[in-house]
Fold:
Amino acid sequence: MPTLLIIDDNPAVATALEVLFSLHDIATLHAESPGAGLALLQSESVDLVIQDMNFSADTTSGDEGEALFADIRARHPDLPVILLTAWTHLSSAVGLIKAGAADYLAKPWDDDKLLVTVNNLLELAEARSELDRRRTRERARQQQLAQQYDLRDAVFADPASERVIALACQVARSELPVLITGPNGSGKEKIAEIVQANSSVRHGAFVTLNCGALPSELIEAELFGADAGAYTGANKAREGKFEAADGGTLFLDEIGNLPLAGQMKLLRVLETGRFERLGSNRERQVKVRVISATNADLPALIREGSFREDLYYRLNAIELALPPLAERPGDILPLAERFRPQDKPIGESARTALQRHPWPGNVRELRNVIQRAGLLAVGERIEAGDLNLPKTTAPKPASTQEPDRAGIESALARAGGVIAQAAAELGLSRQALYRRMDRFGIKPP
Ligand SMILES: Nc1ncnc2c1ncn2[C@@H]1O[C@H](COP(=O)(O)OP(=O)(O)OP(=O)(O)O)[C@@H](O)[C@H]1O
Ligand SMILES: [Mg+2]
Structure:
């Protein structure tokens, strides 16, 4: 049962509130003075405070209430506080709302409105502490992963990337081929490095071949090597990547660009470890851990006949699918912190802008944006203007428009902190508004 602390010198007020809340399964504690209230906050577990603004019979300034509120805030920064005030002090109450009080009610209060406010605040506090607990668990898991494995300095904070990295570590020791999929710049190569660094062949060579960067006639020679005279221009025998990677790892990037003939040969090496150099009939044998990556839709390539289905099933024994950066928003700020210059912290406006941008170029785009801003920013911090991000696209029609951080904050301000009213203005349910406040890290007013 949640517990509410009433700090009011008027016993009649306290009794009325106690009765009201006991009828709604909320326990109450009562203190008659600020000092007694602060002492109870020390000794008891309290979820919410309702405090008066004046405590001595001969004062009406509201100063005591303001001082009490400041003391509570200093000691319990997240504890919601509702101010109970005579109508003459509405202006100082509004000032305290700006300083972080949850809400205020004028005496005589309306029971229903008070209950709605209290229940909202308790719900929000519960959602918050659940979120805190989840974050703590996440961080513990992520630290453990970093202790147990070599993560190649990868930055990850979002549960979505954590899952991919944990899976990469788990499968690293097996000998099965791994296929890494994900859009441009999402960090596929980073994941390949992690698999290699935790594999049993981590001391072997790490050889990479980007199948997208070579004309298709040359890819096979690159992969398998060639004897002198095997093709025009091949005047010397050359070793291919498979031979170079023997006993280690071969990373085949943009595997979707491998021509069909090469695909057939690749399938054979994967199944038998055997191949021949171009122009040679001497069979060679290697032991290579193959990691491949693609941003292409391989199943679609299979349907159109440009990728072998059997090779696909061979390659993707284990698929590590990296979501686009926009689908792992928890990574954005930690990555930005990694990429920024040490002497250029990221300002609040830039943080907001970074979180709003859709990042079509993923981690690579983020890195470039931050490095550029770090170089060019003239102020002490990197601010939104330094990022040079395109203005967000045209607003959607009002009915489906998703409120942004600024929209929510101004609606809350207009509603004087009354959540239900702000929610109504935004066309959201209370719960939906709380979820968005949580997401943007907006404290209740
Ligand atoms: N989790 C991460 N932590 C730190 N740096 C990262 C992370 N993910 C990606 N990077 C960095 O972002 C850049 C792009 O990543 P990477 O080259 O791995 O992407 P990719 O998916 O292979 O891109 P492409 O599709 O263009 O080949 C690299 O400089 C990489 O080091
Ligand atoms: Mg890459």
